[in-house]
Amino acid sequence: MNREQIEEELHKLPTTPGVYIMQDSKGGVLYVGKAVNLRNRVRSYFRVSTKKTIKIQRMVSQIDHFDYILTDTELEALVLENNLIKEYSPKYNTLLKDDKTYPYIKVTVNEKYPRLIFSRRMKKDKSRYFGPYSSAESVHNMIEFLSKFYHIRTCSKNLDGNTLSDRPCLNYHMKQCDAPCMGKISEEDYSENVKKALVFLNGNYEPVIKEIEDKMLFYSERLEFEEAGKYRDLLTNAKNIAQKQKITEFDGENKDYLGIARNDKDVLIQVFFVREGKLIGREHFYMKGASEDSDEECIGNFIKQYYAGTPFIPREIFIPTRLEENELLENWLSGKRNGRVFIKSPQKGQKEKMLELARQNAQMLIKRDEEKHKLEEVRTKGAAAELAQILNIEKASRIESYDISNTQGFNSVGSMVVYEEGRPKKSDYRKFRLKTVEGPDDYASMYEVLSRRFRHGIDEMDSDNRTSFSVFPDLILMDGGLGQVHVAEKVLQELGIDVPVCGMVKDDRHRTRGLLFHEEEIPIDIHSECFKFITRVQDEVHRFAIEYHRSLRTKAQVHSVLDDIPGIGPKRRKALMQHFSTTDELKEASVEAIAEVDGIPENVAKEIYDFFHKDKTENP
Questions:
Q1: Based on the number of CB atoms within 10 Å of its own CB, is 559 exposed (0-12), middle (13-18) or buried (19 or more)?
Q2: To pair with 575 at 20 to 30 A between CA atoms, which of 256, 532, 556, 605?
Q3: What is the model's pLDDT at position 416?
Q4: Which of 557, 568, 574 is nearest to 612 (CA)?
Q5: Tell me, what's the pLDDT at 559?
Q6: CA 499, CA 497: separation in Å to the nearest integer?
Q7: Per-residue pLDDT, 247
Q8: CB 147 within 8 A of CB 169
Q9: pLDDT for res 407
Q10: CA separation for the pair 472, 460 (Å, rounded)
Q11: Are 334 and 228 within 8 A, CB to CB?
Q12: SS3 575
């Protein structure tokens, strides 16, 4: 669509709320946005006078056409915008990078005899959910503690009917369950136990701890020390759980605190989860493509995308800066929660301090990850650059390394591993099963592997169906000495390809001590990142070759005795193995019994029978 056509479409836009979808010439979704007035909002992208960020300028330059969907209200547009962003993951939207799921405790209050279940998803199933918690371990510990103390069943039996079990499970005999499956506890008494567990889950730990202490003292005074010891252990568990959750005290409400930190490239959002007045956990998220967005835009996008998918929405969300969409987002979240939600920006007091703590944590995390990223750059890209400098070549951005693996010449295979910018690019790894070489001839094997790899690459350059073979390396690392280097150089010379080849020289203990390049040995500092990088490449090409060879050996060893019987192919073999549980059972079967197998005619059944009884026939 040209500029005139776009202008024509802009005039057709309505002035009502809705969602607009920017697309490129191939129909790919570039950006999804919402608007109170579609005409004004979409036209603003194409006005020359409108000031735009570099990201938006790039996006607009790629727009071929746009589409839009009308909604009755801005709130409906907000919901639709979220759905479409999740569906298409547009290139120029600020996207929440989140593959995490959080642990929750699910209480199946809709069942006659409820259970406590570990869950990572909240469903509309009439159960009650508690969380999210800081770790899966803390959830498992809490479920175990409450189940033992309140004798809450851990089985998955359906106890909603009137059918009773024949016998109780082991937990009953261990005095950890009152066997509701056998009617040994009434529904009312069981419900009382569940209610006490719910009190604990709601964060009111003191009544439970006191009850455990009273029982421990009761059994101690009666000199029943074994029982007292059990309650002592339960008391320790209860106090540990309470201590882990009791980080800060507020007014008993559910809240989330959002802190933001940024550097030149990244934006990080830190979330503190406060449940029933206790800080129970924290998580952080990176926002993709948000470096040019303001803090307000980043936090607004985070709220829309995160709370569209999270199973729990707290009553209050505290953020460092007030949003233009504050009221709109509150209405949307209130509808999802089925209860009032408030988004607040406190300026003083305990809540402001909590926000500052979240910000400090976010700043710490982004700084830590930045330092980690710098170290990783030194290990990878920096090490590859150092290697290029040592060899005095232009660059070593793409490196390929090769190895041969065989067992006395049997099942010879070759492997090719690829590193780009110092990192393994596993999608470009390749395996070669040797076709022309027989016996343990590593030089001939390497010649075949390299010839096939580079001939394939040359052929692809003249075709439309290109793969990674058409991308040639900046450097070839040969896991061997001068002989292997010469083989590689010979192949490249024959094919007219100019790629430097470097060998890895080993000491008497088969450890790399230096590089062989242009017939000269170049020493390397064994403590340098370059040396460590070369060692990683060497280990990786060995691993890849050996794993492939091992897989071929395993396949060769998987051989059925049925394969030796004339007339038995894969289909009939499978039918026989499904019909007869063991080979011995097949051996004992009569011709008639074998012929009953689907797909086995009588003449083949006789062949099978004769095969297993030939010794008896030959030696009556």
A1: exposed
A2: 556
A3: 92
A4: 568
A5: 46
A6: 6
A7: 39
A8: no
A9: 58
A10: 11
A11: no
A12: helix
Tell me if 275 sits within 8 A of 254, measured CB to CB.
yes
Residue 568 neighbours by CB under 8 Å, 6+ apart: 562, 576, 604, 608
DSSP SS3 for 275: strand
Is the domain spanning 561-618 CATH 1.10.510.10? The answer is no
Alpha-carbon distances of 434 from 411, 431, 449, 480, 486, rounded to whole Å? 8, 10, 7, 19, 20
Convert the pLDDT of each residue in 526-566 to its tens digit: 889 999 999 889 889 888 888 876 766 555 544 456 766 77
Report how far residue 125's alpha carbon sits from residue 118's, in angstroms, rounded to the nearest whole number: 15
- Cβ atoms of residues 381 and 375 within 8 Å: no
Q: Tokens 């919901």 correspond to what residue?
A: 79
Please state which architecture CATH assigns to domain 255-367.
2-Layer Sandwich (3.30)
- Round to whole Å and give the CA distance between 583 and 559: 13
Q: What is the β-pairing status of strands 128-130 and 410-420? A: unpaired
Q: Determine the Cα angle at 156 with ends 155 and 157, to 5°.
A: 95
The position carrying tokens 């979808």 is 21
DSSP state of 378: I
Extents of the domains making up the chain? 3-93, 104-245, 255-367, 398-554, 561-618
- Do the domains at 255-367 and 398-554 have one common CATH topology? yes
CA–CA gap between residue 580 and residue 595 (Å, rounded): 12
**Residues with Cβ < 8 Å from 481, sequence gap 6 or more?**
503, 505, 506, 516
User: How large is the greatest C-alpha to C-alpha distance in the chain, in angstroms?
Assistant: 104
Locate 611 and state its tokens. 């095969």
* Topology of the domain covering 3-93: GIY-YIG endonuclease (3.40.1440)
Contacts of 382 (CB under 8 A, 6+ apart): 422, 529
Whether the model pTM is above 0.70: no
Strand 512-517 with 501-506, pairing? antiparallel
User: Where is 293: in which H helix or E strand?
Assistant: none
Beta bridge partners of 261: 268
In 161-224, alpha helices (H): 170-173, 187-201, 206-221
Positions of the chain with pLDDT under 70:
1-2, 97-102, 131-135, 161-163, 238, 240-252, 277-280, 407-411, 439, 508-510, 549, 551-561, 563-564, 614-620
8 A C-beta contact, residue 586 and residue 597: no
Residue pair 24/63 in contact by the 8 Å Cβ criterion? yes
pLDDT at 611: 82
The pairing of beta strand 65-70 with beta strand 95-97: unpaired
β-bridge pairing 501-506 and 475-478: parallel
With tokens 């835009």, the residue in question is 297
State the first-to-last Cα distance of the chain, in angstroms, to the nearest integer: 89
| pLDDT value, residue 482 | 86
Contact 613, 589 (CB under 8 A): no
- Alpha carbons 558 and 178: distance in angstroms, whole number: 51
Tell how strand 398-407 and strand 475-478 pair up: parallel
Least Cα distance to 315 among 287, 336, 297 occurs for: 336
State the architecture of 398-554 in CATH terms.
2-Layer Sandwich (3.30)
Radius of gyration over every alpha carbon of the chain, rounded to an integer in angstroms: 35
Contact 42, 68 (CB under 8 A): yes
3-state secondary structure of 511: coil
